[in-house]
Specification:
3-stranded antiparallel sheet; 11 helices; about 60% helix; about 5% strand
Length: about 270
C-alpha cells in the first residue's frame, strides 16, 4: 500500500486506488498516514472530525468509521496481502496507529530526503545536498492534502508542511548558489518573490544571484522594494542581516563574488552578526 499526501490524496495497492471516498474516513486515514507508526489519540481524531463540538455519539461514530476503513482496506488489499487491513490500522491504548512502513507514505520520504540534504549541507557537500533537496521537493505535486476535507488538526499539519517545504526550498537554493548556479536561479527566484513579497530569505538569495550575475543595480532594487513593502505592510525595517547584505552590495564587498560562498551557512546569514 502506498499513500500520497503531497499530491492529490491517493491510497494505492498494486496500482489500484483503494482510498475511501467519504470525507471523514479520508480525514482519519490522512491523519493516521501523517503520523504513520505512531499512535494518534482518540481525542485528536475527534478534534479533527468535529472540532470543539463533537456529538454525543462521537466515540461510537469514530469507531464505526475505523471499522469501515478496516473493512474497505481489507477487501481492497485482499487476503494474500502481506499486511491486511486489520493489521494495518491498529487499536492502541488511547488511540489508533497506521502500522505501515514510513517509505510507503510520500511525506515521510520527503522528511528522510530533507534530513539527508541537511547532513550534506552541514558538511559543505553541496552537490549531494542539492540532489537530496531536489528529490524531496519533487514529491510535491499539488497543495498538500488536496482532496481531503481538513479540520483544525489537518489544517495545522498542512501549514506545518508548507513551512517545511519552504525551508527545504531555501536550502536547495542556498546549495545552488554555493555551487555557482546563480544565473540559472534568476527566473525561479523572480517567480518566488512575486508569490512571497515579504519573505526576507528569498530576497537575500535573489540579491546575491543578481549580483553574481553582473546585475548589481537590480540586486539593490530588490532590497529597496522589499524595504518599502515591509514598512508599508508591517511597519518594520528589513532585518540587520539584509541591511548588511545591501551595504555589501553597495560597497562591492569581495566576499560576494566568491561563487561557492562560505560553507555551513545560509545566504540569508552571510552577514549575520
Amino acid at each position: 500500500m502506498r499513500i500520497r499526501i503531497l499530491e492529490p490524496f491517493r491510497v494505492e495497492s498494486n496500482g489500484r486506488s483503494i482510498a475511501p471516498t467519504a470525507g471523514k474516513p479520508r480525514q482519519i486515514l490522512a491523519l493516521l498516514a501523517l503520523n504513520a507508526g505512531q499512535t494518534v489519540r482518540v481525542h485528536t481524531l475527534m478534534a479533527e472530525l468535529w472540532a470543539t463540538a463533537p456529538p454525543q455519539s462521537a466515540l461510537a461514530t469514530l469507531q464505526s468509521y475505523i471499522s469501515q476503513l478496516r473493512r474497505g482496506l481489507d477487501v481492497a488489499l485482499g487476503p494474500d496481502a502481506p499486511h491486511h487491513a486489520p493489521g494495518v490500522i491498529v487499536r492502541c491504548h488511547g488511540g489508533y496507529r497506521l502500522d505501515i512502513a514510513l517509505t510507503a507514505v510520500d511525506v515521510h520520504e520527503h522528511h528522510r530526503l530533507v534530513a539527508v540534504g541537511d547532513a550534506h549541507f552541514a558538511t559543505g557537500n553541496d552537490v549531494e545536498a542539492a540532489a537530496a533537496y531536489s528529490a524531496a521537493l519533487a514529491l510535491w505535486q499539488s497543495p498538500v492534502l488536496a482532496g481531503v476535507p481538513c479540520g483544525r488538526v489537518l489544517e495545522a499539519e498542512r501549514r506545518r508542511l508548507g513551512v517545511a517545504r519552504m525551508v527545504a526550498l531555501e536550502r536547495r537554493i542556498d546549495t545552488d548558489l554555493r555551487l555557482g548556479r546563480h544565473a540559472e536561479l534568476l527566473t525561479e527566484l523572480a517567480g518566488l518573490l512575486d508569490r512571497h513579497p515579504l519573505h526576507e530569505a528569498l530576497h537575500s538569495q535573489a540579491m546575491v544571484a543578481l549580483y553574481r550575475s553582473g546585475r548589481r543595480a537590480e540586486a539593490l532594487g530588490v532590497y529597496r522594494r522589499l524595504s518599502r513593502r515591509l514598512v508599508e505592510h508591517l511597519g518594520v525595517e528589513p532585518s540587520p542581516q539584509l541591511q548588511r547584505l545591501y551595504q555589501a552590495i553597495i560597497t562591492v564587498d569581495p566576499t560576494l563574488v566568491v561563487a561557492a560562498g562560505p560553507r555551513h551557512t545560509s545566504t540569508f546569514d552571510l552577514y549575520a552578526a
